[in-house]
Design goal:
The protein contains ten helices and ten strands.
């Protein structure tokens, strides 16, 4: 019955979680508001905020779990990918705890953890399953045969879906982070009002750069004719943009499901919190009689619970690391 402390610090959320025998006892997340005025995450400011947040966040996570430090069997931390300064704060803190308690380390790949978030709460998918993992930096279709056997079978060739949401929001004049605001306005708009180009790619990969360009040129043309065009049509624009992004994602995901014959389908990552995507994904699965798995909102965005559950399965497999483990800004897993 291993008890694991997990730390996530890959970008601008400082998070700590305690897991015992595969059950999440706490999941504390500290967000960083400092980036809003810059329209995006500033790496240097992010790492400084992590240094300020990590001690109180871990302290609250431990207290909420009811677990004492001496009861920990291992410490898990996000090793890659992410902002190197942010990752170093989490990795060095995790190493310090492991060294002081003489317990092993568990290094976790951030994207694998997003997939594993689907195993935090019941109902859980049985292996094998597919997972559409969508965030600001990644868009992937993952074939999961087991917790230690996962393969990326499709991914973006350029920009991520989350970036497409945020860049589109910026073009519409919405503040950072714009993705959730697009989702909010989309609920009030007509998703068929405006049509944007969808990339035609034969395999399971994605592309969003052309869509962003299509949106940019469309808005430039319309605003030139009517300076108030965006303001007058904001809800319809958000609904149409969101509909297009979701269409691109689910067409490929459906293709992957049909090609592999797997009927257990999951979504994960920050963009999986999008209400339009969650509804369309559930509808697609219901129509095809596939099993749909959608994590709770708190496990979609970056969080330590997903690091903890991944660490739990690595612990069971004996996949331990030592103090020589280092953080990496980039790390592929296929």
């Amino acid at each position: 019955m291993p008890t694991i402390l997990a730390i996530e610090s890959s970008c601008d959320e400082t998070s700590a979680s305690v897991c015992r025998d595969g059950k999440i006892l706490s999941n504390i997340i500290a967000n960083q508001k400092v980036h809003e005025k810059y329209g995006g995450v500033v790496p240097e400011l992010a790492s400084r905020a992590h240094m300020q947040n990590i001690v109180p966040v871990v302290d609250v996570a431990m207290k909420q779990s009811g677990v004492e430090l001496k009861e920990l069997d291992a410490v898990a931390f996000t090793q890659a990918p992410g902002l190197i300064g942010s990752l170093l704060v989490g990795s060095q803190f995790a190493k310090s705890i492991a060294l002081s308690l003489n317990i092993p380390l568990l290094t976790i790949h951030h994207m694998q953890a997003h997939v594993m978030a689907n195993l935090i709460k019941d109902p859980k998918p049985s292996f094998p399953f597919l997972c559409l993992t969508i965030s600001g930096g990644h868009t992937q279709i993952v074939l999961a045969n087991s917790p230690s056997d996962m393969k990326v079978i499709g991914e973006t060739l350029d920009d991520a879906a989350g970036e497409a949401f945020d860049k589109s929001a910026k073009l519409l004049g919405l503040p950072y982070p714009g993705g959730p605001l697009v989702d909010q306005y989309a609920k009030q708009g007509d998703p068929k009002k405006f049509v944007f180009a969808e990339p035609q790619i034969a395999d399971l990969n994605f592309s969003f750069s052309g869509l962003k360009t299509s949106i940019l040129y469309f808005l430039q043309k319309q605003v030139k004719a009517d300076p108030d065009f965006i303001q007058k049509n904001l809800a319809d624009l958000c609904a149409s943009i969101q509909h297009t992004i979701i269409s691109i994602l689910l067409k490929k995901y459906k293709k992957a499901a049909l090609e592999t014959g797997i009927n257990n389908l999951c979504i994960a990552g920050g963009v999986s919190a999008n209400s339009g995507l969650r509804k369309a994904f559930q509808t697609m699965c219901d129509h095809n009689k596939w099993n749909a798995y959608i994590p709770d909102f708190e496990y979609c965005t970056d969080n330590a619970a997903m690091i903890a559950i991944t660490g739990y399965y690595k612990y069971l497999d004996g996949q331990f690391d030592d103090l020589s483990a280092t953080a990496h800004a980039r790390a592929e897993w296929k």
